[in-house]
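G., before I forget:
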Amino acid sequence: AQSVAQPEDQVNVAEGNPLTVKCTYSVSGNPYLFWYVQYPNRGLQFLLKYITGDNLVKGSYGFEAEFNKSQTSFHLKKPSALVSDSALYFCAVRSQTGANNLFFGTGTRLTVIP
Amino acid sequence: DSGVTQTPKHLITATGQRVTLRCSPRSGDLSVYWYQQSLDQGLQFLIQYYNGEERAKGNILERFSAQQFPDLHSELNLSSLELGDSALYFCASSKREGHTGELFFGEGSRLTVL
């Protein structure tokens, strides 16, 4: 079975400070891991993905994520938060050998305080 | 703009009724996925089609059905609607099976059942 846990429903961070949104996963075999962002009344937008190789992946809007196999984690990070980063963030996983659909976490609402 | 088109954007109906949600995938994408986003359950995978054939099934109720047509657009049919079916329904698409890439999401159809 595949699953994703986002332990924090809400993350607040001051503008200019670094941000981290946490994600842990469970999957059979090796994972493909994704981060998506959802702005109000919009669909999900792709931010970044881990497929293989370098554990640190860089994505859109200055975001990056670190894959940690031993901790089964894929935390989303950004060195300096912007007010415009405020949104709902979803982590997703699928097995490299399984079905193509993604399993999503419940989402973390990020609020960047000016 | 992801290139995935969903109609209608908003739909209000009564319990017991039937509705159809429509999705046009990105040009060239053969796979279509349906997800349900509700406040209490996050993003739930419903069903996937690839080139007209059902490929994977998730937490889709028996009252719900879907199909993908020869022109690759897809429809999600929801019948005998209940209050709890009120949610945002997303369609996503991807090029092919066995891919490592992301899914591209439409803006969703918001269903309200009164």
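The radius of gyration of chain B is 13 Å. The mean pLDDT of chain B is 92.

More on Monday.
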